Amino acid sequence: MKILLLGSGGREHAIAWHLKKDPRVTALFIAPGNPGTAQLGTNLPISATDLPALLAWAQKEKPDLTFVGPEAPLCLGIADLFEAHGLPVFGPNQNAARLEGSKVLTKRIFQKHDIPTAPGACFSNALEAYRYSQAQPYPQVIKADGLAAGKGVIIARNPEEATKAIYNIMERRVFGDAGASLVIEECLTGPEVSFLAITDGHDLQLLPLAQDHKRIGNRDTGANTGGMGAYAPARFLSDAVKQEIVDRVLKPLLAALRAEGIDYQGILYAGLMLAPSGPQMLEINVRLGDPETQVVLPLLETSLIDIAQAVRARKLGELQLRFNDLSAVGIVLAAPGYPESPRLGGAIEGLAPSPSADRIVFHAGTKMEDGVLVTSGGRVATVTAWARDFATARKHAYQAVPAVKFEGMQFRTDIGAKA
Questions:
Q1: Which of 413, 215, 223 is nearest to 331 (CA)?
Q2: How far apart are CA 95 and CA 401, in angstroms?
Q3: Which of 158, 304, 329, 361 is most exposed by smallest CB count within 10 Å?
Q4: Are strands 89-90 and 372-375 parallel, antiparallel or unpaired?
């Protein structure tokens, strides 16, 4: 099979690594890819959001299946465009992708259909947002409506921080058009958990439970990031609680989407808070998470190709997903200054071109420049290791970190410590 994969981050390197294990994959193309994916297939000099160029390439090369890694191409309608030209895609259509593209839309669906979620309100007028915020208790969570590269969520602990957040989002437009509207909601407390589900619109199946670590610093301190590490499977939930989330949140959510005329096929990433009042929905992402993908895919035995084909045929309920009994831990290595102002362009040493039997470094923000591997993004790489027991996986992941070197490298030393 000839496969096209869109994206360039650590998630896409992990997807490419998983796809290459399937003997049916005879040719793998990644647009645009990174130096890590170049070890597994052919990188294409086409942006994942350049839909006309992607379509032109696909019409000529006719890939058997296209996997979409990041959310931006899905929100732009890549699935609709390719399917209209007879090119099979694994990923939600543009209407479904709005669930990540608009936090306002998603919040309103939650509220309309009684999906458990934090109390809150949506605003397109800054003055009304200020007034509402000042009348609510603190802390508050303030979210820019649109895509903001994982940086559009701000926790305001007092009126001054809330006012600054609303001003920056709606008036300064620090996130561009993503700040035309925003959501203000109560700040829930409890552990966060990432439920990665696969759905064909009716049936759903869960991937191993993962826990992300969003804060830049140890003990969950400092600024929010796109994710500083993750581990899977997260075993702090009983089977009863998992079933409660499926029955009280995920299945009602799928029913709500059908009622809204949203035909959802693909990955459904449900970000939840396990609040004292029960599981509460925080967000929906329409693709695999990053860095969760880097720790979930080492546990998945079923081919992503089989999953994609079952979803497209609406026969997911007939597919038995297979997982191994390993644990995986992933540690993100970030550039100096991340997340506020990452300093890029530093030379990188120690990124091995091929994985060992129980660990791998997934490239994310890397590029080749005059024959030298350099940093090109805030999250540079994810060091992932897996083993029969969690402690060994965590130990091996941290043992592999010092081999990678670049100036100002930062990482958390407590990924998975709570487990």
A1: 413
A2: 41
A3: 158
A4: unpaired
pTM for the full model?
0.93
pLDDT for 305? 98
Enclosing H/E stretch for 278 = strand 278-285
198: nearest Cα among 280, 48, 77, 306: 306
Amino acid at residue number 226: G
DSSP code string of 196-255: EEEESSS-EEEPPPBEE--EEETTTEEEE-S-SEEEES--SS-HHHHHHHIIIIIHHHHH
Q: With beta carbons less than 8 A apart as the criterion, state whether 186 and 282 touch.
A: no
- What's the pLDDT band for 152 if we cut at 50, 70, 90? confident
253-290 pLDDT, tens digit each: 999 999 999 999 999 999 889 899 889 999 999 999 99
pLDDT of residue 310: 98
The strand pair at 27-32 and 221-224 is best described as unpaired
What does the alpha-carbon distance between residue 90 and residue 308 come to, in Å, rounded to a whole number?
A: 6
Scan for tokens 């009716």, then name that residue: 202
Element (H, E) at 183: strand 182-186
> What is the spatial distance between Cα 343 and Cα 325, in angstroms, rounded to a whole number?
39
Cα gap 195→242, rounded to integer Å:
9
Look at residue 147 and tell me whether its pLDDT is greater than 70: yes
Q: Nearest 5°: phi and psi at 46?
A: -130, 130
CA distance 172 to 175: 8
Question: What is the distance between the alpha carbons of residues 170 and 3, in angstroms, rounded to a whole number?
Answer: 41
Which phi and psi (to 5°) does residue 250 adopt?
-70, -50
The residue to which tokens 């732009």 are assigned: 76
CA distance 54 to 401: 36
Lookup: tokens for 307 = 């999953």
pLDDT in tens, 286-332: 999 999 999 999 999 999 999 999 999 999 999 999 999 999 999 99
Is 59 in contact with 234 (CB distance < 8 Å)? no
Using pLDDT thresholds of 50, 70 and 90, give the confidence band for residue 148: confident
User: In 3D, which of 195, 196, 204, 209 has the Cα closest to residue 311?
Assistant: 204
Sheet with 266-275, strands from edge to edge, namely 204-206, 192-199, 266-275, 278-285
**CB-based contact 141:187 (threshold 8 Å):** yes
**Strands lying side by side in the sheet with 327-334:** 211-212, 229-232, 327-334, 379-387, 359-363
Q: Which residue type, as a one-letter code, is found at position 73?
A: P
